[in-house]
C-alpha cells in the first residue's frame, strides 16, 4: 500500500520504503492485486512502482489474488524467509490482513488517507526511524 488512492503515491510510505532499502538490512517486497492495462491507458504502470521494491509479486502474473492463502504462501517462499513472522505485511484491506496474520505474518493496517500511524507502527516493529526529513525528495 503506497498510495492515498490506488493511483497516487503517498510520500510517507514511499519515504519509509526508501529509508528501509538504504539500510541494506531488509528485503522489500510488494504483493499487489493488479490488472494489465493497454499501452496508452492512464493507469498503466510505467515501471516506477516496481523499481521501489526488491521483489514485486503481481496477481496478474502469478494467477492468484489476495486474500487467497496460496498467494501469501508464494510471497513467503519468494521472499526467502525462514519463518512468516520475519515478514511485515501492510495493506488497507482487513481481509488481506486477516489471511496474512492467520499465516503468521506480522500485519499493519494502512488507511488510505492517513498512513502516518502505520509508519509509526512499522518504526516500532523494526526499531527504525522512518519519518520524512525536510530534505526528502519524493
Task: Outline the secondary-structure elements.
Elements: E1 3-5, E2 8-9, H1 11-23, E3 29-32, H2 48-51, E4 55-58, H3 59-62, H4 69-79, E5 88-91, H5 94-102, E6 106-109, H6 116-126
Parallel strand pairs: 3-4, 5-6
Antiparallel strand pairs: 1-2
Characterization of the model:
With 138 residues, this protein is an alpha/beta fold. It has one domain (3-115): Rossmann fold. It is built from 6 helices and 6 strands. It has helices at 11-23, 48-51, 59-62, 69-79, 94-102, 116-126, and strands at 3-5, 8-9, 29-32, 55-58, 88-91, 106-109. The strands form 3 sheets. A two-stranded antiparallel sheet has the order 1-2. A two-stranded parallel ribbon has the order 3-4. The chain starts with a strand and ends in a 12-residue tail after the last helix. Mean pLDDT is 89; it is low at 134-138. GO terms for molecular function: phosphatase activity.
Q: Helix count, per DSSP?
A: 6
Q: Work out the radius of gyration.
A: 15 Å
SS-derived structural category = alpha/beta
Oligomer: single chain
Taken as a percent bin, the fraction of beta residues is 15-25%
- Helix/strand order, N-terminal first: EEHEHEHHEHEH
Number of strands: 6
Report on the biggest sheet: 2 strands, antiparallel
- According to CATH, the fold-level topology is Rossmann fold
The CATH homologous superfamily corresponds to HAD superfamily/HAD-like
Mean pLDDT: 89
Under the CATH scheme, which architecture would be assigned? Answer: 3-Layer(aba) Sandwich
Which spans have pLDDT < 50 for at least 5 consecutive residues? 134-138
State the distance separating the first and last CA atoms. 16 Å
Envelope shape: globular
Amino acid at each position: 500500500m503506497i498510495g492515498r488512492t490506488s493511483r497516487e503515491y503517498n510520500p510517507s510510505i514511499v519515504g519509509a520504503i526508501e529509508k528501509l532499502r538504504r539500510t541494506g538490512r531488509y528485503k522489500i517486497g510488494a504483493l499487489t492485486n493488479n490488472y494489465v492495462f493497454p499501452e496508452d491507458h492512464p493507469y498503466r504502470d510505467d515501471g516506477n512502482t516496481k523499481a521501489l521494491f526488491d521483489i514485486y509479486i503481481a496477481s496478474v502474473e502469478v494467477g492468484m489474488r489476495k486474500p487467497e492463502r496460496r498467494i501469501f504462501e508464494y510471497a513467503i517462499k519468494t521472499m526467502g524467509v525462514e519463518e512468516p513472522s520475519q515478514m511485515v505485511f501492510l495493506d488497507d484491506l482487513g481481509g488481506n490482513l486477516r489471511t496474512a496474520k492467520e499465516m503468521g505474518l506480522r500485519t499493519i493496517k494502512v488507511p488510505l488517507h492517513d498512513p502516518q500511524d502505520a509508519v509509526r507502527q512499522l518504526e516500532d516493529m523494526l526499531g527504525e526511524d522512518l519519518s520524512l526529513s525536510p530534505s526528502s525528495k519524493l
